[in-house]
Amino acid sequence: MVKISVEMVRKKAEHHDRLLAPLEEISLHQENIEKIEYIQDWCPKLKILLLQSNLIAKIENLNKLKHLQYLNLALNNIEVIENLDRCESLTKLDLTLNFIGKIVSIESLVGNYNLQNLYLTGNPCTDFDNYRDFVIGTLPQLSTLDGVEIDRSNRIMALQNLPLIRSDILFEQQNYLCQRQKQKVRLENDITNKWENEYKDMDPEERNKKFWAEKCEHAPEVRYEIEHMRQLKLKSEEPEKKEEKKPIKLFAPDGRPFNINQAKIKFLFSDAESDKFILDLAVYKHLDSSLLNIDVQTNYVRVTLKGKIFQLHLPEEIETTNSVAERSQTTGHLVVTMPKVNGIVKTKMALKLNSQNEIYREREENLTAATGQSKREFLEIGPADELLDFTKITRKSNPTYVDSRFKVHEKKPSQNFVDDPDVPPLI
């Protein structure tokens, strides 16, 4: 049983941005719907509702659609016209090819004063004598019936003869309802017996051929059985759906790489050396190297083996341009050598310091060879066998000490200098 769902209705309302409340037209035909529900609550402004080619057996849950103008319920399993008296704006009703035998049920449409077009073609009631006159006399607001325009003279004659016509119609209706009840019981028993006994151990293909070759009656029960058979056929023809594998998450929401070993392969990760990381991956010995895909990034290394992922998060940043991947020809192991970024910096600093020390050492050797004295002898202050007292080298500790930087030297005048007695001496 197919039920009307929100997603089904939204899918049909794609032209309206999937909004339901302001929707004025919707088509739910050929959806195998068996019951009308929820539409009046989700789409209260509907003007056109198309529900043809379904399995609906009863007209219901439409009384809130005050703006509904056109309702199409053709090719369903409806046997009685009902529950449309509150659809006051209804102007067109299509009930073609249903199973309406209770023709008196059209009297429920008397209050639909806007109803102008009614279609009942293909229903059992159309075989009754005076069917057309009864409908025209019962619903004087109609302008067309089954696509044929109603003349004024036909309407007047139908209204004049309505009491007599109605008595004849009730008699024919009662005969049909008795036959319909017997048919319903017989078909239900036949279908149950067929599926429990005849079709029980039969091959599906053979059962399908037998079912579609048999003649059947035009009845709601047969329509249900046909739809059930059609679904079984579609199900048997559908290829087996493979289980879809969930995509592997390679990174956490914060961007941190996950450790993944989808291939379940053994590995050895070494950081014993201060300047590099070494990953030894036990790749299958006879695996072709073309099936390996290696991706080395600053904070992770990823190896793909025949579509399976091995990923390892690195504790420090590495130098990707200087990383090297090698494979052993004897064991098949894959060895990835990844220099550390900090390790390279320290190595460069050490090499620079060593080169400077070499330069200083070479200069000292040249100086010693030229003067006969080492650089150390030039740096010594005072005799090497005496202890120097550094306590009296400041002015506070030695009052007699005079710093040459603060010593005042008397400046002698020039030869042409003439002393002026009126100028007072400098204090």
Rg is 52 Å
Q: How is the biggest beta sheet arranged?
A: 7 strands, mixed
Q: How much β-strand is present in the residues?
A: 5-15%
* Measured distance between first and last alpha carbons: 124 Å
Main sheet: which strands, in order across? 1-2-3-4-5-6-7
Point out poorly predicted stretches.
none
Question: By helix and strand content, what is the structural category?
Answer: alpha/beta
Taking all residues together, what is the mean pLDDT? 83
Number of strands: 15
Helical fraction equals 25-40%
Can you give a write-up of this model?
- It is a single chain.
- 30% of the residues lie in helices and 14% in strands.
- The N and C termini lie far apart (124 Å).
- The protein has 427 residues and is an alpha/beta fold.
- The radius of gyration is 52 Å and the shape is elongated.
- The strands form three sheets. A seven-stranded mixed sheet has the order 1-2-3-4-5-6-7, covered by helices on one side.
- Helix 3 (131-138) crosses helix 4 (152-160).
- It is built from nine helices and 15 strands.
How would you summarize the topology of this molecule?
Elements lengths: L5 H7 L12 E3 L11 H4 L5 E3 L19 E3 L19 E3 L22 E3 L11 H8 L5 E2 L2 E2 L2 H9 L1 H37 L5 H10 L6 H18 L22 E2 L5 E4 L5 E6 L10 E5 L3 E6 L2 E6 L10 E4 L6 E6 L1 H31 L3 H5 L48
Parallel strand pairs: 1-2, 2-3, 3-4, 4-5, 5-6
Antiparallel strand pairs: 6-7, 8-13, 9-10, 10-15, 11-12, 12-13, 14-15
Helix pairs in contact: 3-4, 3-5
